[in-house]
């Protein structure tokens, strides 16, 4: 596919900060019970619905994929940044990681039991998010689940630009994101928001959705 300017900026930004970013997020799941609760609930939901491959899209250095693999899921990971994938492969050699964009996933139709996009859709311009969700729906089997994490907008609806330290990003209101999901093959089954922690600048949000 033809790379857009924002894809180049995002890949370059994460390549340049891969080591620093990996050190920064290394213990976030261990130290954040709310995020861990939602990720573990996602894993339990998938286990209750049978087995199958789960893809961590925008996996970064692979920490969420590794957590879910330890929870018993069959994991793979994909990221735009070659440096992030290099680090993920070094730290978690038992999980297959590949370089690639989320706009064109290397999976057959309905091949996946689950998708996790943990703070990876935030760098996609809002106008392109529907196409990304449609691609997620293509590769996720009906009844499969997807988990999304992102910075939450201050307003109850809409999307706002956010001055992320690595690349331009966007904050979504929970209801706006859930409505966008409903228009592109998904139904939100759980929505969770929390206030910012001391090392965060904004409220945070998580949405669990099922492929309809």
What is the secondary structure topology, with strand pairs?
Blueprint: H1 5-16, H2 18-25, H3 28-31, H4 33-48, E1 53-57, H5 63-70, E2 74-79, H6 82-91, E3 97-99, E4 112-118, H7 129-139, E5 140-151, E6 159-162, E7 169-172, H8 174-182, E8 186-194, E9 204-211
Core attributes:
single chain, 212 residues, alpha/beta, Rossmann fold, 7-stranded mixed sheet, two-stranded antiparallel sheet, globular
Q: Any overview of this molecule?
A:
Residues 54-144 form the Methyltransferase domain. This is Class I SAM-dependent methyltransferase. Keywords: Methyltransferase, Transferase. It is a single chain. The chain has helices spanning 5-16, 18-25, 28-31, 33-48, 63-70, 82-91, 129-139, 174-182, and strands at residues 53-57, 74-79, 97-99, 112-118, 140-151, 159-162, 169-172, 186-194, 204-211. With 212 residues, it is α/β, with parallel strands linked by helices. The protein has a single domain (5-211), classed as Vaccinia Virus protein VP39 (Rossmann fold), CATH 3.40.50.150. The strands form 2 sheets. It has a 7-stranded mixed β-sheet, sandwiched between helices. The relative contact order is 0.15.
